[in-house]
Amino acid sequence: MSFNELRLNQPLLKAIVDSGYETPTHIQMQTIPLVLAKRDVIASAQTGTGKTAAFALPILQLLFDKQDAVKKGKKIRALVISPTRELAVQIQENFKSYGKYTNLRSCVVFGGTSLEPQIDILKKGVDIVIATPGRLLDLHKQDKINLSRVETFVIDEADLMLDMGFIDDVQKIERLCPPTKQILLFSATMPFKVVQLAKTILNDPERVESTPESSAAKGVKQLLYYVPKSKKIELCLHLLRNTIRGNILIFRRTKNGVNKLEQTLLKNDYNADSIHGDKTQSDRQKALNKFKKGEVSILIATDVASRGIDIDNLDAVINFDVPNIPETYVHRIGRTGRAGNEGLSYTFCAAEERDYITAIQKLMQRAITIEEDHPYLLDPEAKPQVHKKKGSKYKKGRKSAASRRNKKRWY
Ligand code: AMP
Fold first, then answer.
1. I need a labelling partner for 48 at 20 to 30 A (CA). Which of 91, 112, 158, 388 fits?
2. Which CATH superfamily is domain 3-211 in?
3. Sheet harboring 41-44: ordered strands across?
4. Which residues fall within 8 angstroms of residue 385, CB to CB, at 6 or more apart?
5. Beta carbons within 8 Å of 47's beta carbon, 6+ residues apart
6. Euclidean distance between the first and final Cα of the chain, in Å?
7. What does CATH list as the number for 214-370?
8. Ligand 1 in contact with 31 (CB < 6 A)?
9. Which atom of ligand 1 is found nearest the CA of 45?
10. Is there an atom of ligand 1 within 6 Å of 48 CB?
């Protein structure tokens, strides 16, 4: 199938040629006709599948074709919400490049920066707004944005949006748009709460799937290292010294974990940087640019900060912590091995994470190769570490020799 067959208009087809796209991706083939037919859509699609163009192209076309109806000044007719600033910026860049031969204007609004420049752009009039939920609601509270003319509302990365606690905000924003709007919901994974949200706000949606989630990891050599939690850092250093080469993305579950690992790698003379939610927008962008340009070879990230970011040409992904959502594992390792190259993934599993591996293998319907040839092998009988609550009696008193030793190694 070609883009011509998708009945896209000339200004868009010209921009597609400029972007170097030859054929539509699977998600684009399925989604574009539905959006043009004004259907609500719920789509499972991960980053890298071309999902942004799948909604941006038909939205631009719908707005472009119906411009005569809106003669007096520009009104916001399409609204896209995204959980992170980086993703919002990336989406707007896509709208700008696909819409460059149209007179449609877009803008991006996100928190963490001053409101005034965003208000100024909104005042001049835009057709499309891409926003993070909190800032959008702030602007609305201050009466600086009018959503009463929105015709298409896109919720991107819905699973992450809900994980980040934006459910109320999403519902509020939905109610601020007219009831007749078309809604497109994109999500990398489809947990129950996303399906529930879709049921409450979408109108008879068409379901679209980019690739079955379990097959997204084909072409990646996956290795599993059983290791005690306290030895993960040593294992990581060991593999970086002896085995893993090239551009490496390391995932950790928490911001604190990202910071600790970054400090350790820097102290060991590795060229590393990190992205997580506590860093400023400009620091995150700087770290990302350095990694993309090859100035640093190791990027450490939380899922939240890295989601939606287009990082290509990865040689390896390290799952320093095993994700508790199996689809997240598939999503993470899908970042390596793109464009026909074999990718590599290294997953460090402690005793308390064994169940997560079982769930991942069940989803993928295949076993991950266990690598036992390393110096920090987990005792198969090892019991999960008990989490000690803050203020519990176990915390008080002298730390054990083992925990003092482990602490030393961390820093
Ligand atoms: P996305 O999944 O929207 O983040 O897109 C991932 C990457 O695929 C981006 O770099 C897009 O520029 C690119 N892309 C989108 N559609 C196509 C296409 N039809 N052909 C080739 N590349 C594409």
1. 112
2. P-loop containing nucleotide triphosphate hydrolases (3.40.50.300)
3. 106-109, 128-131, 78-81, 152-155, 182-187, 41-44, 206-209
4. 229, 350, 351, 352
5. 188, 307, 308, 309, 310, 331
6. 55
7. 3.40.50.300
8. no
9. 2
10. yes
Structure tokens at 364: 């993928």
Phi, psi (degrees; rounded to nearest 5) at 131 = -145, 155
> How many CB atoms neighbour CB 162 within 10 A?
19
Both tokens of 84, joined, read 């992170």
pLDDT at 279: 81
Fold: same for 3-211 and 214-370: yes
Rounded to two decimals, the pTM is: 0.64
Cα 338 from chain centre? 16
Specify which residues 206 forms β-bridges with: 41
Q: Distance from the CA of 319 to the center of ligand 1, in angstroms?
A: 25
53 lines ligand 1 (CB under 6 A): yes
Based on the number of CB atoms within 10 Å of its own CB, is 79 exposed (0-12), middle (13-18) or buried (19 or more)? buried
Query: To test the ligand 1 pocket, which listed residue (6, 310, 311, 335) has its Cβ within 8 A of the most ligand atoms?
Result: 310
pLDDT for the residue numbered 171 = 96
Q: Give the residue, out of 25, 47, 186, 306, with the most ligand 1 atoms within 8 A of its beta carbon, to mutate for a pocket test.
A: 25
Cβ atoms of residues 211 and 26 within 8 Å: yes
Residue in this structure with the two tokens 């030859």, named with its chain if needed: 22
The mean pLDDT values, 10 residues at a time, for the chain of 411 residues are 90 93 88 97 84 96 79 84 91 96 95 92 95 96 96 95 91 96 93 90 90 61 95 97 93 93 96 87 85 92 72 86 87 73 90 93 86 92 66 42 35 21
* 3-state SS string for 208-258: EECCCHHHCCCCEEEEEEECCHHHHHHHHHHHHHHCCCCCEEEECCCHHHH
Max Cα-Cα span within the chain: 76
Please state the domain extents for the chain. Answer: 3-211, 214-370
343: helix, coil or strand? Answer: strand
Residue type, 193: K
